[in-house]
Each structure stands twice: as structure tokens, then as C-alpha cells.
Amino acid sequence: QVQLVESGGGLVQPGGSLRLSCAASGRILSPYVMGWFRQAPGKEREFVAQIGWSDGRTYYADSVKGRFTVDRDNAKKTVYLQMNSLKPEDTAVYYCARKRVGAKYNYWGQGTQVTVSS
Fold first, then answer.
1. 27 pLDDT above the threshold of 90
2. SS3 sequence, 44-110?
3. Which end of the chain is more exposed for a tag (fewer CB within 10 A), N or C?
């Protein structure tokens, strides 16, 4: 059974930074991909970033490119999302998720709230 637990959310001022963590248990290494998504109030969940466990290949949504960085620690089975230059529109619940390469995301964490406000 795969379990994903996010942490690191909170309240931050515009322009500030936060680092989210996603601790995974169970079978999550190669050939899997870990992703970050977010859902703001009244909006659909949207893709933020993803990273391959084995090759470290990353992919970002245009809205966060250059501000967010995703990386992973295979030994700790943990994926991180470093968020810099945060904007009020980044406010959302952030989720991590797992999928096989070429498949859909099928395991999700419970989410962590990020609020960007002065």
C-alpha cells in the first residue's frame, strides 16, 4: 500500500518562500513519477510539477516555471517542492501524487494548505 504525506504548508507573505515535503511509503521508486498538484477554492485541481524517481527528469507548469523547483531524496523516499517568489495566486491546497510512467496519477496525499497573503 502506498501512502503519501505532505507537510510544510503555511502562511507566507508575497515574495516569500516555502518548502513542501511529501514522505512516501510503500512501492514508489522506479518506474514511478511523483507529481505536485494544487487546488484553489472554487477552482479545479491543476498540475504544478513532477519528477521521475529514477532519472530525476522534471516538468513544470508554465505558471510556476522559474519560481518552483521539485527534487527528491530516494533514500528518504521524500519529494520536495521549493516555492520561491510566492504570489497570492499560489494560494491553494497542495497535493503530492504518484503514478507509473505513462499512466495516470492514482495515489494521492491528503494535501497541505499554502496561503500567500500580506
1. no
2. CCEEEEEEECCCCCEEECCCCCCCEEEEEECCCCEEEEEECCCCHHHCEEEEEEEEECCCCCCEECC
3. N
Q: Give which of 69, 57, 73 is closest to 24, Cα–Cα.
A: 73
Sign of dihedral through CA atoms 93, 23, 99, 65?
A: positive
- Closest C-alpha to 79, from 70, 87, 88: 70
CB-CB contact of 94 with 112 (8 Å): yes
C-alpha span between 19 and 104 (Å, rounded): 25
Q: Which amino acid is at 82?
A: Q
pLDDT in tens, 70-108: 999 988 999 999 999 999 999 999 999 999 888 999 999
* Four-residue CA torsion sign, 88, 115, 18, 83: negative
pLDDT at 102: 87
Closest of 33, 37, 75 to residue 54, by C-alpha: 33
